[in-house]
Amino acid sequence: MNRGLEIHAVSRTFYTENGTVVPALDGVSFDAPAGQITALLGPSGCGKSSLLNIIAGFDAPDAGEVRFAGVPMGRADSHCSMVFQTPALFAWLTVAQNVEFGLKRKKLPRTEREKAVSGMLRLVGLDGFALAYPDELSGGMQQRAALARALVLRPELLLMDEPFAALDAQMREKMQDLLLELQRTLGQTILFVTHDIEEALRISSQVVVLSSRPGRVADTIPLPPAMDDAARTACRARIRAALAES
């Protein structure tokens, strides 16, 4: 059985060039259930992005362990893809070429790549923009292309670092709806970093709140699958209380 993402006692300290010690994470432990979206909230500088980098294999913890489906995750783990706050698309490649990039690195046959790219662009609503370049797209369309680039690899685990923060409110809501639709279709386990309580309540089945630096788990809050106004108010208050105590 896929046990999802397991973070156990992860700690990380950084050292500046002048020797200053910067503790980023201190004994962080929580589980992100398989096939669900877990939102990760916390004040700026609490180590959320540092934790994502450790999970993705871009960095290593000083202590602790990260497991997915019961197996320790290694450096640049192939089970995992990441979507960043900015789309970070290659300006000299078309939308289709950007989405295809990871598949080419995996040396998939051309026909298989083309089929996968076409299908994913259709899923994210960009099938009419395959030959467009990133600077010809709106911000929301660029982020959809970045999401397609991550999802076309069919990762079991998707890490998202405030991917919709730069979008206006209307586009942000549309992207949230798209993410929920794709997650239901593809079934990934998703860890979604956000500063927005309402976004966390809208898209996730669980909220993990980190304290101020060094990041520790202040609270883990399961969300009801169908929240009425009273439940939403109670969950919102609990998240705010955890943030206030941090």
Question: Would you write up a description of this structure?
Answer:
The chain has helices spanning 48-56, 95-105, 110-123, 139-151, 169-186, 197-203, 229-245; strands spanning 5-15, 21-32, 37-41, 63-68, 71-72, 80-83, 157-161, 189-193, 206-210, 217-222. It contains 7 helices and 10 strands. The model has no long low-confidence stretch (mean pLDDT 92). Helix 2 (95-105) packs parallel to helix 4 (139-151) and helix 3 (110-123) packs across helix 4 (139-151). A hairpin with a 5-residue loop joins strand 1 (5-15) and strand 2. The chain has 246 residues and is an alpha/beta fold. It starts with a strand and ends with a helix. The radius of gyration is 18 Å and the shape is globular. 36% of the residues lie in helices and 25% in strands. The strands form 2 sheets. The protein has a 6-stranded mixed sheet, with helices on both faces. A 4-stranded antiparallel sheet has the order 2-1-4-5, covered by helices on one side.
